[in-house]
Amino acid sequence: AQSVAQPEDQVNVAEGNPLTVKCTYSVSGNPYLFWYVQYPNRGLQFLLKYITGDNLVKGSYGFEAEFNKSQTSFHLKKPSALVSDSALYFCAVPPGNDYKLSFGAGTTVTVRA
Amino acid sequence: GAVVSQHPSWVICKSGTSVKIECRSLDFQATTMFWYRQFPKQSLMLMATSNEGSKATYEQGVEKDKFLINHASLTLSTLTVTSAHPEDSSFYICSARDSAMDHNEQFFGPGTRLTVL
User: Fold this and answer.
1) How far apart are CA B50 and CA B71, in angstroms?
2) Closest chain B residue to A98 measured between Cα atoms?
3) Helix-strand-coil percent breakdown of chain A, rounded to 5?
4) Strands of B4-7's sheet, edge to edge?
5) For chains A and B, what is the number of CB pairs under 8 angstroms?
6) Residue B102 pLDDT
7) pLDDT more than 70, % of chain B
8) What is the rounded CA–CA span in Å between residue B75 and residue A1?
9) Low-confidence ranges of chain B (pLDDT < 70)
């Protein structure tokens, strides 16, 4: 089954600094990849997706992600982090040929003022 | 667009009672909805796939008689936790797939916090 891994449980950055949240994938063929963000006691909010086309995908709230086939990565980035970006971030991929999504373990981002 | 609502947002019940959680797609049709369970600071665990007009498909280890799912219309799926016990306390999140899309993007509800006393 196709899967994603988020190697970091936590990422801490200072406000104004670049933010990177890592995700690697294990898929066969061309993957669909997603990033979601979850604020405390809330559902998930869609950030961006890679389906096909440009490797650099721009999403909501100033986030972007780069699809890197050679490194099998889909890292989420933001050039200048805000305190309000503090949340739990999930990378996701369809595990098979149905419409499910398989989520990574999640990365807690803390942006300090 | 692509809004999914859940009701209630939180519920507290006594052990042994049943609780129904509703998931609605407000501005799109969803032949497929998903129910997840999430423990604090953990990832989402898929419980079941809810298919409009047919039986739900449960993931391995999820008791179908415990977690009853009904998807009676293209915009509504319900999850009923039967004879709830304290170990069923959790955050339940639903999502819906827009039937007009041909890929896996899911739109998530805000979640329901269930506490069983």
Assistant:
1) 6
2) B104
3) 5, 50, 45
4) B4-7, B19-25, B76-81, B67-73
5) 57
6) 66
7) 97
8) 30
9) 1, 102-103
